[in-house]
Write a structure and sequence with these properties.
Elements: H1 2-7, H2 16-19, E1 26-29, H3 33-40, E2 47-50, H4 55-68, E3 72-74, H5 97-101, E4 110-118, E5 135-144, H6 149-163, E6 171-176, H7 181-190, E7 197-200, H8 202-205, E8 206-207, E9 214-225, E10 247-260, E11 266-279, H9 280-288, H10 300-307, E12 329-330, H11 342-359, H12 368-384, H13 398-405, H14 410-414, H15 416-451, H16 457-467, H17 471-479, H18 487-500, E13 519-520, E14 527-538, E15 541-546, E16 548-549, E17 563-567, E18 570-580, E19 583-592, E20 598-604, H19 606-630, E21 636-642, E22 645-651, H20 658-673, E23 678-684, H21 685-691, E24 704-710, E25 714-717, E26 732-741, E27 744-751, H22 752-773, H23 780-808, H24 810-814, E28 818-820, E29 823-829, H25 836-850, E30 853-860, E31 863-870, H26 872-876, H27 881-891, E32 896-898, E33 902-907, H28 913-928
Parallel strand pairs: 1-2, 3-4, 6-7, 13-16, 29-30
Antiparallel strand pairs: 1-12, 4-5, 5-11, 6-9, 8-9, 9-10, 10-11, 14-15, 14-20, 15-19, 17-18, 17-20, 18-19, 21-22, 22-27, 23-24, 24-25, 26-27, 28-29, 30-31, 31-33, 32-33
Helix pairs in contact: 6-7, 10-11, 11-12, 11-15, 12-15, 16-18, 19-20, 23-25, 27-28
Bound molecules: serine.
Serine (SER) binds at residues 91-93, 140, 207, 252, 254, 275-277.
């Protein structure tokens, strides 16, 4: 019972429910409610049993309803949008933009979906308001030139009032003030009285586009009156469309009519359409009559897991106490304004978001989406401190989320183990620096509070760089104390850092030939006649623009071609080829004459191109082999394809074992030997997806994409050039495997001639080493082991000999002892060559003989070693070996300390040993006083 009372959250049926006077009530949801009520034997005053629907029921009811209106139900798209200019999918219509724009035909003119959405814009509102979420599900119905306003409104009303059974008296709507049609439909076809229809301007009742351009139009919103208890007293807040808690917006019906251009111009869409969005969590909260979305059954298992984290199994296996829950108990004390519970709601939100991001292949990192995942995890981890959780705990909630959502989103359950590992590593990483970081931040804040200054940008960057505090987190912590950050200074510090660490890659001069277009012929040929259109001097060379070219310009990891451009009276060597927009830029070195506009012959260095293609085709094989042996979570994160040399970065969170490395290399070579034809085709993105092509990210819907297929083994979208057949790769050798960051691995490999040369060089080195060891290459391992053992033995003998010499000189050394206030001090240089153990032994011997303090300084190949020993009598008199050694080490540029009777330390500056030895007497004297 105490355990229950301590937090007011209840997890298992227990007596505490009956007696805990602090408890408002227990909410039981769904068909189990009655059963639960009986088995719990709860007093009626503590029960609010809801026979309303669960979140899952709401989701299926919605989709079924629109299926009955002849819509095709499509699965949720990925959280990673196909439009590369947006970071994450944040609206249900986002994957459908090409259908609205008429760039692609939808599978049916009426669709319905439940789309995963994520955004971090309102992250600070999460857990503060009743409705904000970073990750949420959006229910939507869509029409592309099919039904329009009337059906959208009438069906929306039918679903709310008939299917969900909401009392029409609590529903209100708003429309765009210039839209005369929508209010008319609300009045005439729905029967809503005029005072229930609000009219607002663009800010409230115009939706879209996502990003800078795309579909948009006027909309009509539906609000639910949650009751007077949520009134604030401010009429601006307490009205439909106001920011207060009373009227909750549950559904937005967008009448998509325009395609907004980047310059703001509104062009009509090919056909007007419908896009509606209903937040699943909000609507569930309203139906279940709970205070916040985090009180719904959708969050209940997650919240329970957070509160009872100690009861969760520490391993990631299936099962665990939370699955034994016979029904859902929402801990009702999660009050929105209760400062002890909002961290729970934030954690519940962020861990769910992180899991869904992980399920779509995102990993915690420093950029873009990866950074968002890192931020969710770190912010949640920090919140955990409010609950007394200081050790990694978030990863233990992953299986709970996987069980809750796995049926609907199989990607979550499939990758749960991997996600939990990712999250655990990220937690550990942050944990290791968090305390120091918080100390540092608090220290900085103390100074700033007094002077009311802002935090210097380089300090904020240091918090990020050294302690892993995302800028936003620092900003948030500081803002609570009214302190700002010099954000420009932060950017400057970040840029300076990336320059120093070499991360900033020199951007190619964007202005060169920017508007021009080059026809690329390099897929078909490596030699062509062309017109030289423009040229410019550049750093001793020239850059040259042709009307058409066979030169491949660097992209997708594949480096640019080299070769020659030959004109009537000049000859130039092409050093590199890059792309600027649609213009191909050839950097050339003049071999003869000077560049001139007019006809030229452009010839690619074919040998080099083939070597690049060997590496490129091998990269595809490697990617497929990694997925085969490590799992489908392996995703490409960057690559370099150069002549016979490749570098491949991919998502995976552990080093590859020797066995895995070998398996992967063997598989790649097997597929080379199978002599698979490499077939390249042009497809629409939809066709490519249907074929199961990998690496769709970054491609735009409506794009024509190139699919590169290697027999039955690999299929990728790729713009690069390839071999006609895998066998031309010759051989692929993995040269190295290592980590790039926590979750990204890097493999480097050679192909073709380079692989061969590399192997031969290895052989040669082996033979030479064998010769030196006087053995055959086959015996080299045994011979090396033998030699090592011999070296060890010789070192041991040498130490013994040195020790003997040192002991013999002990008497000599002792004659140099002096007396400091009745304590004998021997401070002297040790004989050359003693290691730490030998030094210690000598100090022991001398101390026994002198019954005082012995200080030995040794110059060990330029490095300083100290050993200080104090006898019991000396300690009684006040001597302290540890403190003494610290002072001496300091003088010789080092540090250390230790016990009163014995201590060792090191230093860097051997030239100061004598100074330090002289100092010993003073230090000892001060101790004995
Ligand atoms: N696109 C609108 C929204 O996201 C309706 O689906 O709110």
């Amino acid at each position: 019972m105490t355990a229950c009372k301590s937090r007011h959250f209840h997890y298992k049926p227990c007596d505490a429910f009956c007696q805990d006077a602090d408890l408002d009530y227990v909410l039981l949801i769904g068909t189990q409610a009655k059963k639960a009520r009986i088995s719990l034997n709860l007093p009626a005053r503590l029960i609010r049993a809801q026979n309303t629907m669960t979140g899952n029921e709401l989701r299926s009811k919605y989709l079924q309803f629109f299926e009955s209106k002849d819509s095709l139900v499509i699965p949720s798209g990925s959280l990673i949008p196909s439009d590369p200019t947006t970071l994450l999918t944040s609206a249900g219509m986002q994957p459908l933009v090409p259908y609205f724009k008429g760039e692609e035909a939808p599978p049916k003119s009426r669709l319905a979906s439940c789309q995963k959405c994520c955004r971090a814009d309102d992250i600070e509102q999460v857990g503060v308001t009743w409705r904000h979420a970073s990750f949420f599900e959006m229910l939507g119905n869509f029409s592309f030139g099919d039904y329009f306003k009337r059906e959208a409104i009438v069906w929306g009303w039918e679903f709310l009032t008939k299917t969900l059974g909401i009392d029409p008296a609590v529903l209100w709507v708003s429309v765009y003030h210039e839209d005369l049609e929508a209010p008319e439909i609300w009045r005439r076809d729905v029967g809503l009285s005029d005072e229930r229809i609000y009219r607002f301007g663009k800010k409230d009742n115009w939706w879209g586009p996502v990003g800078k351009s795309g579909p948009c139009g006027p909309d009509s919103e539906i609000f639910f009156d949650r009751g007077a208890k949520y009134d604030t007293g401010d009429p601006e807040l307490d009205r439909p469309g106001g920011d207060g808690d009373r009227y909750g917006e549950i559904w937005n019906l967008v009448f998509q009519q325009y395609n907004q251009q980047e310059n703001g111009e509104l062009l009509p869409l090919p056909a007007p359409g419908i896009d509606t969005g209903m937040g699943l969590e909000r609507t569930a909260a309203i139906l279940q009559g709970v205070d916040t979305i985090h009180h719904t059954d959708l969050f209940a298992p997650i919240v329970n897991a957070i509160v009872h984290i100690k009861n969760l199994p520490s391993t990631l296996q299936e099962g665990g106490p939370e699955t034994e829950l016979p029904f859902i108990i929402t801990p009702y004390r999660l009050h929105p304004q209760n400062p002890t519970t909002w961290p729970i709601r934030v954690i519940a939100d962020h861990i769910r978001a992180a899991v869904f991001l992980g399920a779509d292949g995102i990993v915690p990192g420093n950029n873009g989406r990866d950074y968002m995942m890192r931020r969710f995890i770190r912010r949640a981890f920090l919140m955990g401190r409010n609950l007394g959780y200081r050790k990694p705990f978030l990863h233990r909630i992953v299986p709970v989320i996987a069980r809750s959502y796995g049926d609907i989103y199989p990607e979550v359950s499939q990758s749960a183990t991997n996600i939990a590992q990712l999250i655990k590593r990220e937690e550990k990483r942050f944990e290791s620096t968090l305390t120091d970081g918080m100390d540092r931040l608090e220290y900085l804040m103390e100074g700033l509070e007094e002077s009311r200054e802002i935090l210097p940008g380089d300090e904020a960057f240091r918090l990020y760089e050294t302690y892993g505090f995302p800028l936003e987190l620092t900003r948030e912590i500081l803002s609570k104390e009214g302190i700002g950050i010099d954000e420009e200074g932060y950017q400057r510090a970040a840029e300076a850092h990336s320059k120093v660490s070499g991360a900033a890659v020199g951007e190619y001069e964007k202005s060169i030939f920017g508007a021009a277009e080059t026809r690329f012929l390099g897929y078909e040929t490596t030699r062509t006649e062309a017109q030289l259109l423009e040229f410019q001097p550049e750093g001793g060379n020239f850059v040259v623009l042709l009307d058409q070219t066979p030169f491949y310009a660097e992209s997708g990891g594949q480096i640019g071609d080299q070769g020659e451009i030959i004109g009537a009276d000049f000859k130039a060597r092409v050093l590199d080829t890059k792309k600027n927009g649609k213009a191909w830029i050839h950097t050339v070195e003049m071999l003869e004459g000077a560049p001139k506009n007019g006809p030229v012959t452009a010839i690619v260095d074919v040998e080099r191109r083939h070597a690049i293609e060997r590496a490129h085709s091998a990269t595809h094989l490697l990617h497929a082999a990694l997925r085969l042996h490590l799992g489908d979570h392996v995703q490409q994160r960057g690559s370099l394809v150069a002549p016979d040399r490749l570098r491949f970065d991919f998502v995976h969170n552990a080093p590859l074992s020797d066995e895995e490395n070998r398996l992967v290399e063997d598989t790649v070579n097997q597929e080379i030997l199978r002599s698979l034809p490499v077939e390249i085709e042009q497809k629409t993105l939809a066709e490519a997806k249907a074929m199961g092509a990998m690496a769709l990210f970054g491609e735009k819907y409506g794009d024509i994409v190139r699919t590169v297929k290697m027999g039955d083994f690999s299929l990728e979208l790729c713009g690069g050039t390839h071999l006609p057949n895998t066998s031309s790769t010759g051989l692929c050798r993995i040269i190295s495997e290592g980590g790039v960051s926590a979750n990204i691995r890097r493999i480097e490999a050679y192909t073709g001639t380079l692989a061969l040369t590399h192997d031969r060089e290895t052989q040669t080195r082996l033979r030479t080493a064998a010769q030196i060891l006087g053995t055959q290459p086959d015996n080299i391992v045994g011979a090396t082991e033998k030699m090592r053992a011999r070296v060890k033995e010789l070192e041991r003998q040498l130490q013994q000999a040195q020790q003997k010499v040192a002991s013999a000189s002990a008497e000599d050394l002792l004659s140099g002892a002096v007396e400091i206030n009745g304590v004998k001090l021997l401070a002297t240089r040790a004989p050359q060559g003693l290691n730490t153990d030998a030094l210690r032994n000598l100090a022991d011997q001398l101390a026994q003989k002198s019954n005082g303090v012995v200080v030995l300084g040794a110059d060990n190949d330029g490095k300083v070693l100290w050993a200080v020993k104090a006898s019991p009598d000396a300690i009684k008199a006040g001597a302290h070996a540890g403190n003494l050694v610290r002072e001496l080490a300091k003088t010789t540029g080092g540090g250390g300390g230790g016990r009163p009777d014995f201590a060792q330390a090191g230093g860097k500056d051997a030239s100061k040993i004598d100074d330090a030895l002289k100092q010993a007497a003073d230090v000892l004297e001060s101790q004995i006083k």
